[in-house]
Amino acid sequence: MSFVHLHVHTCYSLLDGAIRINDLVNTAKEMGMPAVAVTDHGQMFGLWTFYKAALKAKIKPILGVETYVTPQGRQSRNKGEVRNHLTLLAQNNTGYHNLCRLISLANLEGFYNRPRVDYELLSKYNEGIIALSGCLQGEVPMIALSGRLDDAKKAAENLAGIFPNRFYLEIQMNGLPLQALANKSLVDISKSTGIPLVATNDCHYLREEDHEAHDLLLCIQTGKLVSEQSRMRMESNEFYFKSPEKMASDFDWCPEALANTLVIADQCEIDFPNADPARRVYHFPSLPGLSENNAADQLKTQAEEGLEKRFQKLESAGQPLSQEDQAKYLERLEHEVSVINGMNFPSYFLIVADFINWAKENKIPVGPGRGSAVGSLVSWSLGITDVDPIKYDLLFERFLNPERISMPDIDVDFCAECRDEVIKYVTDTYGGSDYVAQILTLGQMKAKAAIKAVGRALDIPLPDVTAITKLVPDKPGTCLADVLTNPIIKEVMNTDPKIKKMMDMALFMEDLP
Length: 513
Description:
By secondary structure, this protein is an alpha/beta fold. It has helices at 21-30, 47-56, 93-108, 119-124, 139-145, 149-162, 177-193, 211-222, 244-250, 255-267, 292-316, 323-342, 346-361, 377-382, 419-429, 447-457, 462-469, 480-483, 487-495, 497-509; strands spanning 35-41, 60-69, 84-90, 116-117, 129-132, 167-172, 197-200. Strand 1 (35-41), helix 2 and strand 2 (60-69) form a beta-alpha-beta unit.
């Protein structure tokens, strides 16, 4: 029997999920699943990576999120308030955009310990979204387990009203006694309301044997020791990515719940043209008073004027260029402008030049440039960088190449004390806060960090952990697989079971975000 997992936490459920994206899609494909979903906690960090990986593996990606819903309203700030889980899946691009809106507002307006939405937001942004009632922390099962079956039924009908013909009661077989009780109530509610059932497994790790490593990951997240009794833990080892055969065995008493996973998967169809380089379209804002139609001409004009100013500065500094050398610069500039305009990127350069030159005019220190962008004569001419690429024989093609179309990426360093002024300028100039966003970079547990984190959770004496980490080279790119070949570490692992366990677990944790 075929089956699709619709409730999956990847490693982007930070320090809670332990499933790597590539492992997820490859395992789903090996198990013969036509599709698979990702529903990380309260965020959508991993969905773009997941979408591309799933397409590459030739299985359908279902994009979702497990939200935190506060019945008291997202503006409330009451200690000890209930945050109900709700699994949301995008049916189409409209649904995905609504998920983005919900999660943005959950963070900007509803954040209190967790990013929270409320029924007002769900009612406003539900189009194109399928909702599942969630795990034991969902509103319907929580009320049902309190013995108030009628109230649980009303809660289910309320959600079914918000998501008409797009709401399912989520049942699981995870070995928890409370789950068995909840399943009984959810089945009763389904019979009395006609709301369909769907089978999920709330996957947090890939294989059943990963349970111990996932438990240790939870300790790292909460700062607890594995040996502590009163700490957060999964009360069974069933929260793994089960095969269709295992799910069919678990739900032989409710085959329609399994069939509904395929019904839902069939309804979900997301198309992102930008995932395919051949179909990729870029959208740029424009400088005030500048249209897309004249951006190319403006780039050419500003670059030529900027280069002439560079020539004049060199002459003023007693380093004039010969006519022959100037001709080389002009030829290179013409080539670069042609490539930039041919790739439809003139607005990008004009915008970056605008806020960099504004910063310089306002006495805000700006770095001279770094990375491949310093290979561009256009960047130097516009004042984006202060490194002459011809003088230092730097290649433009390392930065921008028509044979490999990708967005230009210019790294800019601003004075830390003044960068907020630059951000304010960009926000004010380009349409306000709805049109300007900051992005984040997720850190990863690299070799040393993984060893230290695992060592703390296992309560291994710090000197023993430090002795191991000192044997890990500091050079970038060092991975634990290489470190484990060190004869000293191999000997310690062979003689000390605790150190061996620490290293095995660190290997599991390495590179998790």
